[in-house]
Amino acid sequence: MSIALLGQYLVNGLMLGMMYGLVAVGFTLFFGVLDVIKFSHGDVLTVGAFTGFATYLAIQATMSVPWLQLIIVSIAAMLAMAALGALIARFLVLPLRSAPALNTLLITLMLGTVLRESVRLFFPDGSNPKPFPALLPRDAFTFGLFTLRLDSVILFIAGIAVIVAVNVVINRTKLGLAIRAVAQDGETARIMGINFTFVVLVTFAIGSALAAFAGVMNGLYYNEINFGMGLLLGVFGFSAAVVGGLGNIYGAILGGFLFAALQTIGAAALPFASAYKDVFALAVIIAIMTWRPTGLIAEKTSERV
Amino acid sequence: MSAAAPTRLPALVCAAVATVYSILFLHAESQLAVGALLAAAAAGLVLAARFGVIARTRDSIGAHPTMFDVAAVVGVLAAAIVLRQQHFAVLMMTTAMLLMVASLGLTVQFGFAGVVNFAGSAFLGIGCYTAAVVTKYTDLPPLLSLPLGGLVAALIGSILILPVLRTRGHYAALITIAFGILFKTFLEVNDTLGGPQGMQVKPIIALGWNFGRPFRVWDFAASFYFSYLLLALALLALAFVLVRRLERSWIGLSLDAIRLDETASACYGLDIARWKVFAFTLGNFLAGCAGAVYGHVLGFIAPNNFTFADSLVLVSIVLLGGIGNVWGVTVAAAFVVILPEKLQIIQEYRFAFYAVLVILILLFRPEGLLPRPLREYLPGWRAKSS
User: Fold this and answer.
1) Could B189 and A105 be called an inter-chain contact, meaning their C-beta atoms sit closer than 8 Å?
2) d(C-alpha A52, C-alpha A212), whole Å
3) CA B383 to CA B381: how far, in whole Å?
4) pLDDT tens digits for chain A (305 residues)?
5) A-interface mutation test, from B158, B174, B323, most A Cβ less than 10 A away
6) ipTM above 0.85, yes or no
7) Is the CB of B175 less than 8 angstroms away from the CB of A285?
8) DSSP-derived secondary structure letter, B118
């Protein structure tokens, strides 16, 4: 295998890992505060990407500076999904607090279908893939045979910045303290005067905004978005969160990269190559879950957010 | 409740009304007629509930279950004979009955044993593709694809046994979701199985009888789906009897116990792993059998028939029918299959429509539209409710 190809795999794997990590952080945050899995998370990502795309179409005529467009697109997508995430928590997840866990799972699965189908049906020509605008500079550095695109570098740095920002919010602010308190013990947190509902809603908003960011990132990297993109990303993101131990932010990010690495190595090393790469990745999920049913870092001993 | 034993009449009337209504509904052409029929059904149900007709009918059916089963089969046959020349109506009835079989399979897994399976359409698809492979690559008699479809589905499902046993809750859900997507992705990239274009399934030919030809016995002529309708009805009757016998037996009791409290049932000596494996395998077998017939009926299958959304529709059927309620699931399957075909407004929106419906049910009536009745330990014995 040539160095160029290897480099390409490496860059691709890092980008995938970043996206999985961002989705996984959302799963892990939700699980931390409410002990629920929100299966519609991947589809929130899709809706976020499409919101960004719609925003781009709306401002395209009045504004021509790409980086300004990009900032507006990202902010619009993240704000809209933060609101959507809070709404989901308020009206679908919180009312089922006392119901069996299975009901939460079902309701979010069905909500995912509603979101996915809404994008397909109500976005103009939504059943076909849409070309996502290239808003980042397309320069490329060439190191011998290996080319590195500038936009990949920018996306990667932006991803790290977002993760660091989330980390700061969780670990250094009063809000983060409240989130951690609720994650540790909701009942006690309430007694200490923490507004439980508010903290849950904010957590869902943060997680969903991260998904929107990952969706825009996905669109910018592949230059294409479609209504089904969130389904696989959601499954992979959840697996990454599980592999890293649910409720643990560092674990989720680590799980994202680990998972992307496995997938990339599988695609690169297996003889029947890229056609079966998703089949391989899904089989790996099933195998890992069988081997360690609650993740590599077991659920009980894992440190909550 | 009246002291006297419930008579047979309400159950028979119920079967007759349902039959006539189904015929009218399947026959209705204009959207206006379909809408009017739906409104009539809603009004009828509200009135029936108001005047206690439903409770009396339920008691009557509960007191004479065998008679009601026979009446239901006769009703389906009567509807089929009336509509025999309308290909589309016969096809819809056949599809509905096959999905009923698959949903019964899911009921055993999900409703009885509490094993979640979000890959229902994948197991249906395994049956379909088995039928396609049997007719395309082998000289085996095509009718054999029916049991083979079930066996292959059960066999492939057994790969998932270990993962499903070792995980629970969200994690088990993730595994079956991953498997459902894996199955569809695999079909899309595998050239032997036709890739994204799919495969042709040749009709069943048994004892010189070609199921794909127009049905003709003496002067009785019917649609070319009619043979499949009879086959589907036979399969449904078998599956129904099997599942209901199972529910009433000590096996069903064990499965219920395991669903409700694993720890307690283990303390009482139930082998949890064994019964979960049993329910999971039996459910997949039923889905696979239904899938094999479904493949023959469709004549052409493609990976897009077996998406994750289709799996969720199967789960919706089980939820709409009231988890574990065998009759409820049957009614819900008919509703879910036939409604979008007749009401064109929701045809395109059906996945979203059912998803919204399930969300509303989970929010406002979590036990399902037709909750599963309490188990009757002795014939005629009723737990005092409320």
Assistant:
1) no
2) 8
3) 7
4) 566 777 778 888 888 899 999 999 988 888 888 888 888 899 999 999 999 999 988 888 787 777 888 888 899 999 999 999 999 999 988 888 888 777 888 889 899 989 998 998 888 887 888 888 887 777 777 776 677 788 888 888 999 999 899 989 988 999 989 988 888 888 888 898 889 999 999 999 999 999 999 999 999 888 888 888 888 888 889 888 888 777 778 888 888 998 888 888 877 777 666 677 778 888 888 888 888 777 666 555 444 44
5) B174
6) no
7) yes
8) S
